[in-house]
Amino acid sequence: MTQPLRIGIAGLGTVGTGVVKIVRQKANLLAARAGRPIQIVAVSARSRNKDRGVSLGGYGWEDDPVALATREDVDVFVELMGGADGPAKAATEAALAAGKDVVTANKAMLAIHGQDLAERAETAGHVIRFEAAVAGGIPVVKALTEGLAGNEVTRVMGVMNGTCNYILTRMEEAGLPYEDVFEEARQLGYLEADPNLDVGGIDAGHKLALLAAIAYGTQVNFDAVELEGIQQISIEDIRTAANMGFRIKLLGVAQMTGRGLEQRMSPCLVPADSPLGQLQGGTNMVVLEGDAVGQIVLRGAGAGEGPTASAVMSDVIEIARGTRLTTFGQPAHGLEIARPARASAPAPYYLRMRLIDKPGAMAKVATVLGDAGISIDRMRQTRHDDTTAPVVIVTHKTARDALDSALRYLPGTGVVQGEAVAIRIEDV
Ligand code: NAP
Ligand code: HSE
After folding, report:
1. Ligand 1 in contact with 308 (CB < 6 A)?
2. Is 207 known to be catalytic?
3. Is there a single domain that holds both residue 23 and residue 87?
């Protein structure tokens, strides 16, 4: 029998226990597919005595993940603890220095330290694989790195945070305000320990930055991702968008433009009948566009024990088979530093505001938009109360700079109550 591939798993939470279950329950299938047995030799977590609903019998135990990562009998260090720095980074670096390959689900660590870790791996002649870090069970890292290797990637788009998609779709279905659904998501255990990672778009931004690095052969640069969360989305916007045939999604877009690499993660209106518009609940969707292949749509579970462990195992099996891919699909030392696009590509925008109901109010708003060079495509005024009227304007394509300038001038008209809401309408 061929030598087993010996793995050490640091982190026995949702994902780690899922990996242990697959290895225990599907040993024959994995061995047949990998061409050799996959064997867990040791594990690590914070608490040794916690009941994890899975037997850890027969595995060694290390309190310190660095000790696990450097054990002589470990071939592949599987990092499932999380966190951009701290023990995850220390153990990953130690594993590479000790001659191990690494599999991780840690998007935060790779989005911030990915270039450095990829260079360390390459220098040491080892690999880091991270299928589970982006969109959970969807094999999008492999799709981009391998399946689309013959394409120039023209655009990467996706809904890559299941919690945000759950919140937005639940608000629409139940007609509930953001705050109520946020609380519901918290009680269901959907939110990260720091919920801002989800609703602030940071988690999804990490994932987008990783895909952009593979797609465009550039160094991962999370700092250049233009981020906007979903905290400001109101039920009124969701209803108004729905009436106009749109849904609001936290959408990531990465594309190489003449102005540099554009990476943005922000709420966008997408047509309700498009694949992205149809995406319900906690599911993820990634849309890849290549010059030869056209558009590919991948949809599936972006989180959870089974789907994420499935992705981790795909990397473990890849290594067991002897496939040695570079972290971002090209040698790390050759990856270019992309010039970040300072402004996103022009797009139509949805603008919602409350106008004080008096003669000439609409004309003043139209003048501000016109002065900023913004042309109106459609506008609608509905259900005004005694003093104000809700107004929705859809602009023709406009630059975000021009829109921001108009938004700054609107309060000065004296006819707009509160703040105007502006949401990009994405051509998907
Ligand atoms: P989790 O349930 O919070 O589990 C984290 C595990 O790491 C726990 O077992 C914890 O030990 C262990 N741990 C934390 N600090 C440690 C330390 N200093 N030393 C040793 N062990 C330590 O997290 P998770 O949801 O499984 O996520 C793991 C990774 O997968 C993260 O990078 C996450 O972003 C990524 N990911 C998760 C999902 C998902 O659906 N959950 C999806 C995609 C990617 P104790 O159990 O003893 O506390
Ligand atoms: N918090 C993430 C989500 C978990 O909601 O999609 C998976 O990365």
Report:
1. yes
2. yes
3. yes
